[in-house]
From TrEMBL:
GO terms for molecular function: FMN binding; oxidoreductase activity. It comes from the Bacteria. It comes from Bradyrhizobium shewense. Residues 4-145 form the NADPH-dependent FMN reductase-like domain. This is NAD(P)H-dependent FMN reductase.
Length: 183
């Protein structure tokens, strides 16, 4: 049996590095994990006034998360934090209060940047947001992928040899993390 993992690529850009990294993780995942890669596209803005009759896009996103066995966030860094669209998706999924769709789900965080810092501030933002609304966050290995600008070919395939073992080690560790919390 494979655990179903929702992998949220936190960017809307069609050729985003986060989406390419999420897809690379899906290809590298061991047989014990099945990664479904999604983006925040189509999730309307959170507004507490709508909680009584939530929009269909909110309900569909929440349902997908509730049926999953874990979540991986793959995020770029915008202005020393996560993109607004990713924060909005988290806000939608974490409501109503006490009924977060992330509750009990093992979580992984992968940040990335074409620059030298690898999106570390975005990862730290998620580490601040998720406790209290999500399950156990995998602590190690931490992964902040820098210089990802030349890591993929035109079709989105991983071509940077130095990156593959890093991603493989991460997804293997995440599989163990999920197994530990569902075993």
């Amino acid at each position: 049996m494979a655990y179903n993992i929702v992998t949220i690529a936190g960017s809307l850009r069609k050729d985003s590095f986060s989406l390419k990294i999420a897809n690379a993780l899906a290809k590298l995942a061991p047989d014990t994990l099945k990664l479904e890669v999604v983006t925040p596209a189509g999730i309307s803005f959170f507004n507490q006034d709508l909680e009584g009759a939530p929009p269909a896009d909110w309900l569909a996103f929440r349902d997908k998360l509730q049926k999953s066995d874990g979540v991986i966030f793959v995020t770029p860094e915008y202005n020393r934090a996560i993109p607004g669209v990713l924060k909005n998706a988290i806000d939608v999924a974490s409501r109503p209060y006490g009924k977060s769709s992330f509750n009990g789900k093992p979580v992984g965080i992968v940040s990335n940047s074409p620059g030298p810092l690898g999106g570390v501030s975005a990862a730290k933002t998620l580490q601040n947001i998720l406790p209290g609304i999500a399950g156990p966050i995998m602590q190690q290995p931490e992964i902040y992928l820098n210089a990802v600008g030349d890591a993929f070919d035109a079709e989105g395939n991983l071509t940077k040899d130095s990156l593959k073992p890093v991603l493989q080690a991460y997804i293997d560790a995440f599989a163990a993390h999920v197994g530990k919390h569902h075993g």
